[in-house]
Structure formats: structure tokens, C-alpha cells
């Protein structure tokens, strides 16, 4: 007996591949629209769910990111309206400019993200730990200072140096075609 592929499984696979490849750029876009981290995460989740629900309507001849950004813009506006925070919303022109810039630079971001991953791996473990702790939303600079026996001011200075080091490493890797030290 010959079985034919289930179209819903193919559709799910297609969505998963496309979504995963663009997920971080979409998240970054949402976080640029919504200034509160928790609210941005809520809008990101709503957008992701909306993309899944409307996936069958997506035209595969079009690019995914502009479509996803449009959905995110709608969700951001809806969310801010629900919360009575419309005054925090960027203008439509600003959102469209941001979308265009992110779509235009998509390939460059992939290269920079790959370089960042390699550069972070090269950091000493204590610097990596401090960096990760700084990106946890629930950890304050004072708490990080306590973890590492430093003042808040010293934490700020060390994080600035770590970020500068990462920036230089990324630039070097990209300049050398990804083979930088």
C-alpha cells in the first residue's frame, strides 16, 4: 500500500523551518517596537501564534520577514491600544523604515550573529557568566556585583569592556571572512 504525504505535516514542517530561520530577527523587531521586556515578549508570542494561524494564507513567492513584521506591527498596535499606551507607539512611517532596514540587512545579521557566537565562546568563563547574568531580566547590576564581589560601578565597567572586546572580535571575524581569531 502506497501512502501519500500528509499535507498538514508538510505545512507544519514548512512553517517550522521558515519561522526558526527568522525567529530572532522577528523577536528583535518586536522588542524595538515595545519598550517593556515583558510586554514585548507577550507581543512576540501573540505574533508567533498569529503567524502560525495564518500560515496557510502566506504566499511562498513572497519573503517571509516583511509579512511577519507586518503581523508584528498589527499585534504591537493592538497590544498597546489594549493597555492604553498608544502614545508609546512608533509612527507607521518609523515602523516601516525599521522593517525595511531589518529586511535589507538580514544576511549581514546572520553573519554577525555567527561571529558573535564564536567570540562569546572565546571569552573566559567568568566574563561569559557575567555577560549572561547581565542579560537575565530578573538580575540587577547590584546582584551581579554581589555574585562577583564587585561594586555596581565595577560591573558596568567590566561589561562595557567585554562588549567592546566582543565588538572588536566580531569585526575582525567578519573582515577575515569568519576565520578571525
UniProtKB/TrEMBL annotation:
Keywords assigned: Sigma factor, Transcription, Transcription regulation
Domain RNA polymerase sigma factor 70 region 4 type: 114-166
Keyword hit for Transcription regulation: yes
Molecular function per GO: DNA binding; sigma factor activity
Xref: SUPFAM superfamilies: Sigma2 domain of RNA polymerase sigma factors, Sigma3 and sigma4 domains of RNA polymerase sigma factors
A biological process term (GO) from this entry: DNA-templated transcription initiation
RNA polymerase sigma-70 region domain residues: 20-84
InterPro entries reported in the protein's UniProt record: RNA_pol_sigma-70-like, RNA_pol_sigma-70_dom, RNA_pol_sigma70_ECF_RHOBA, RNA_pol_sigma70_r2, RNA_pol_sigma70_r4_t2, RNA_pol_sigma_r2, RNA_pol_sigma_r3/r4-like, WH-like_DNA-bd_sf
Family membership: Belongs to the sigma-70 factor family. ECF subfamily.
Name of the protein this chain belongs to: ECF RNA polymerase sigma factor SigW
Protein species of origin: Blastopirellula retiformator
